[in-house]
Amino acid sequence: MEKDLDRIIAEYLAGEGIPDETAWLEGQMQSSPEIRGMVEELKLLLEVDDFMQGKMEGVAQKQFEHRLQEDPATQSALKGYQETEVFMELEKRRRALELMESFEQNKKNHLRSYISRILPFLTLAVISIAGLMLYRSIYSPKSNIDVPIAPIEGDPGQGDQGEDDQGKGGPVEGNQGQGNAPQVLKEDKKNTTSSTNEQKIANFVAKELAQEVQFDSQMGNGTPNDTIRVKWIADFKTSDYKNVRSLLTESYIDNLPSLDRQLEARFALGLTYCHSDDFNKANEIFTQILNSKPSNWKEKARWYSALCYLKTKNLNEAKKLINEILTKNSHFKKTKAEEIKPLLPAE
């Protein structure tokens, strides 16, 4: 039975153990500190995995976060898990690059082979088409395109038309409705300009939101809060916004040691909703930052809040924030604010 110890422990922790094996394992745990330690270590790793994958919720998540702050063994297990996860991620990227390089090489080889097969047929087709065109130019009937067309009797362009008009009571007045043409053209031009501006704004916002936002992932003093921070930054880089939100809870943000770290976390939380197309929720969070003390995060929140308003077509609110960027000596995205302002409605 000892040779299947790993399986027995795993089934025991999953609650799926065979009764005889479960009884044997519980007896071994009481008599053998080594086996008891193996069971506890595996149980802790499973809890860490659930936490990192965002499977913990409610009370269980809060209890685990508390353990992270108090229990060195839990902190050590989380750090080991992250180091393993980073290694696996790097290995996956290395393998992906190898596969891409192999694919590109195979594609080039396939293209050369394909060209070599169809080149004779292409050459024959070109020669055939050239011969057909030459044959038609020599033997086809002469085209009637140069035959002059006789003028139609009574054509308005003829000289007697003026007399006919006078005989009927003088020249005909201008077309009805002609006086409204300038107004119609003006409205059409206005509508066209508005539509063009909307498209330009949409393209501008999409391009800005596609810009990658960098967070400093340097580890702090190795506290549980620092460990979670490294995790949410890694998840943000891979666009796992759901998991970022599961880590950036209100209790976590409120317990961060400095205002700068709190604003950073709230800004990242707002971006997750922004990239998930929940622009109203994103703006709620950005507004919290805008109501705080001056900081770099406040300047960034002002810009992304403006983008959210542009995305939801609330152009007046967007223009207020953009004017603030231009008048408050803000250096963040000032050039971009100057670029988008002419597309917004006039005062």
Summarize this entry quickly.
This protein is mainly alpha-helical. Helix content is 72%, strand content 0%. It is flat, with a radius of gyration of 37 Å.
What descriptive keywords fit this protein?
mainly alpha, Serine Threonine Protein Phosphatase 5, Tetratricopeptide repeat, flat, single chain, 347 residues
Report on this model:
With 347 residues, the protein is mainly α. Among the domains are: 2-70, no CATH class; 220-343, Serine Threonine Protein Phosphatase 5, Tetratricopeptide repeat, CATH 1.25.40. Helices cover 72% and strands 0% of the residues. The chain contains 15 helices and no strands. The protein has helices at 5-13, 19-31, 33-52, 58-70, 72-139, 161-167, 181-209, 224-237, 241-247, 250-254, 259-274, 279-290, 296-311, 315-327, 334-340. The chain is flat and about 105 Å long. Mean pLDDT is 77; it is low at 155-169 and 171-177.
